[in-house]
Amino acid sequence: MKTKTLETNDRVITTDMQDGWQAHGGMACRAGTAESRNFRRKMLAALAAVLSASVLGAGCGKKKEEAPPAPETPAITEDTAPDEETLPDEETIPDEETLPDEETAPDEEPEDLHKGQAKSFLTGKWVKKKIANQRPVSCMIGNTESALPQYGIGKAQVIYEAPVEGGLTRLMGIFENYKNIEKLGSVRSSRLYYAYYSMGFDAIYLHYGQASYAQGFLQSGQIDDLNGLEYDVDKAVIYRDTSKKAPHNAYATGDGLLAGIQLKNYETKYAKDHERYYQFAEDDAPVELSGDTCQDAGIVQPGYLANHPYFEYNPEDGLYYRYQYGARHIDGNDSRQLAVKNILMQNSNVRTLDGNGYLEIAAAGEGSGWYITNGKAIDITWKCADNFSPARYYDSSGNEITLNQGKTWVCIVDNSHLDRVHFYADAAAMQ
User: Fold this and answer.
1) What is the 3-state secondary structure (H, E, C) of 304-366?
2) Other C-beta atoms within 10 Å of 54: how many?
3) What does the CA dihedral 363, 174, 149, 264 come to, rounded to 10 degrees?
4) pLDDT tens for each residue of 403-419
5) Distance CA 170, CA 191 (A)
6) What residues in the chain have per-residue pLDDT under 70?
7) If DSSP codes are grouped into helix, strand and coil, which group holds residue 10?
8) With contact defined as beta carbons under 8 Å apart, do 260 and 226 qualify?
9) Percent helix, strand and coil across the chain, each to the nearest 5
10) Whole-prediction pTM
11) pLDDT per position as a tens digit, 146-164
């Protein structure tokens, strides 16, 4: 029997994008240059407690909404009955957003091998230095059956998946090289915890509207965001695919992202003292997991109820291939199946805020989890100093873990449902 799920209307329309603590009082500097962002981050930890209390205080009910200036394009609304769509059948291998190894002359010095390149903050691989130093863009992407296929998601270096209302999940892709993305989306609304995850990567955050609990923070000037509900951003960044029904018809392009960033005058480079989020293995020293907690992980099930996703390890290329809704999970731009090198499961406290099913997920604090790569999984712990900082991951000995070079999928798992998470040696063992 197929379980029917409900996706609620989460749009909160706002036209005033005020700097400062509009909903909470106090002052905050507007995001802009790398130096001002760096100064602002030092102040955010002290303000985090005040912000958290204020946001939770808003949980008693939604704010009264004001209508924005009428856009020239149709407004987006939520539908409640996702339609199933057929996915392509071609089996393809995803490409990586990295440069091919340069051929060198016999007398060339080894240090010239990666001239003009630098290690990616998101994958640990060698990329053009300009790309390595460029702040990424994060994008909220719908993940209901009626939103499939998603577009551009295969170009993300990091993908976050977390529960939202109605038992569904939503995705957030983080892209270091977004200029040439031909179609990205569908672009969906923000949840507060997703905004926090984005800030950990110092990413420019693309979304179309927000749940009411995220509104105050998104308007506070603490985050560089592109909100499709803002008329000028909608005109610059978003276009409508007339073949899709609202709210799954809003998409962006690489050119649109560049236009939106220019419109907002956001800084495009990392600060000089930007901290690396992940620690990656060296080129000639891949990670092979072992230890007391190590277990086989040829199949990984994160335990989400609506889309029933799982990852299957392919020992030939060392990647985990993604499935959901009973089919291969593909990028509609090229029909390639999504695949990653690393999977992080971050077990977090989750609670329901209201009758609409909106959730609060603890982005800061600490908890348990798993790190999965090369067909194996180990127990880990995670710690995050505040809502604006990256999480750090540690093995059972207390050492920060090292990831294998490549893409990473982060699954945020509800602490109260860890029994839904499963690891199997292979597909036969899953039956």
Assistant:
1) CCCCCCEEEEECCCCEEEEEECCEECEECCCCEECEECEEEEEEECEEECCCCCCEEECCCEE
2) 17
3) 100
4) 999 999 999 999 999 99
5) 9
6) 1-111
7) coil
8) yes
9) 20, 25, 55
10) 0.79
11) 999 999 999 999 999 999 9
